[in-house]
From TrEMBL:
Recorded GO MF terms: glycosyltransferase activity; metal ion binding
Keywords in alphabetical order: Glycosyltransferase, Metal-binding, Transferase
Organism the protein comes from: Candidatus Scatousia excrementipullorum
Official protein name in the record: Glycosyltransferase family 8 protein
Family matches, as SUPFAM superfamilies: Nucleotide-diphospho-sugar transferases
Signal sequence segment: none
InterPro entries xref list: Glyco_trans_8, Glycosyltrans_8_dom-fam, Nucleotide-diphossugar_trans
């Protein structure tokens, strides 16, 4: 039996996605293996969230530890998408009991037995990871500026297997913190943690098969060669993916639009959590927010046209049944939804 250590960095607002990721791991990992989860956070994980996460034990038993991180320790570094993504750079000292850990983003679903990844031999490496699908972008935005500092292949750090024993032996944590400080001073870019890990660990990174970090929203929306070298490479990876990673612009997430490629597996595992009903409600709210801000660019708006038509008709009636400021407000809403109805009809 293996004791598998799995780490996340997360805020309470992402608890739904943490639950879905954990549910997929719990559902697909052999019960012969012990699962130990470590959740790096800023102390904002509520007791209600912990109660809900604990309910996942109805899938199978697991251990979980919430590790509080001091946000101010990272204040001098570029925050990237969110400050919490940088916390993994200190994982060797934050989780001293682990000599090896699999660190995952929480916008992903695990479809294979995670033990198959865990058992990868990384005794001579600091990290194992899958090359980032967007190598052209990585070259243009990161590597081209200081090309000698980075590996020829840039790795996506949404799925990384870390040799913490070797990190401690070679003082890697200090080198990473020095590296992200340098990176923050020289780049204005969204992934300082990923770029720093690539830069500091570049000579000791083991390449994993692409199926362990398959990114459908990049492969099928962005399309090769912008993401993946070719259609053949993409299709080979997605013939049997082990981990589905919803890496993409924030508007293209499985929990915002269930029609996106491979979004159905997210909802399959979210259904096993206490967050399923809330997830549906959040999808409607978030989709509405994104789609109204960018009506031409969002296919998901078509799915909301019945709601928009209903609201237009409702405000058209209400503006004639009210007076004064209330009537004025309803007239404004009626005009706004009339414009949306016209937009939908124009692109339908």
């Amino acid at each position: 039996m293996s004791k598998i250590n799995i780490g996340f960095t997360v805020t309470d607002s992402y608890a739904q996605h943490l639950a879905a990721t954990m549910a997929s791991i719990l559902s697909n990992t052999s019960k012969d293996n012990e699962l130990n989860f470590f959740v790096l956070n800023e102390g904002d994980i509520t007791s209600e969230t912990k109660r809900r996460i604990n309910q996942l034990s109805n899938i199978r038993e697991f251990n979980i530890k919430y590790v509080t991180v001091k946000r101010e320790d990272f204040s001098e570094y570029s925050p990237g998408v969110h400050m919490s993504t940088n916390y993994r750079l200190k994982v060797a000292s934050l989780i001293p009991e682990a000599d090896k850990i699999l660190f995952l983003d929480v916008d992903l679903i695990v479809l294979d037995d995670i033990a198959n990844l865990w058992n990868t031999d990384i005794s001579d490496y600091y990290m194992a990871a899958v090359p980032d699908p967007c190598q052209i972008y990585q070259f243009q935005v990161v590597r081209s500026k200081f090309i000698d500092k980075f590996p020829t292949l840039m790795y996506n750090t949404g799925v990384i297997l870390l040799n913490l024993k070797k990190w401690r032996e070679d003082d890697i944590e200090e080198k990473l913190l020095h590296g992200i400080k340098w990176f923050s001073a020289n780049y204005d870019q969204c992934w300082p943690d990923q770029s720093t890990l690539n830069m500091v660990l570049k000579d000791k990174i083991k390449q994993l098969d692409g199926r362990w970090n398959a990114c459908p929203l990049l492969g099928y929306i962005q399309q090769p060669p912008g993401a993946y070298d070719s259609i053949e490479q993409r299709d080979l990876i997605f013939a049997n993916p082990a981990i589905i990673h919803y890496a993409a612009d924030q508007k293209y997430k499985a929990w915002l639009d269930s029609s996106l490629p491979w979004a159905d597996v997210y909802w399959e595992y979210l259904r096993k959590t206490p967050y399923y009903e809330a997830g549906i409600l959040n999808m409607v709210k978030n989709a509405y927010k994104y789609e109204l801000s960018d009506i031409h660019g969002s296919l998901g708006l078509l799915k909301q046209q019945n709601v928009i038509n209903f609201k237009y008709k409702k405000y058209r009636v209400l503006k004639n049944l009210t007076f004064g400021k209330t009537a004025k407000r309803y007239r404004e809403k009626c005009s706004r939804f009339r414009a949306l109805v016209n937009e939908i009809q124009a692109i339908s």
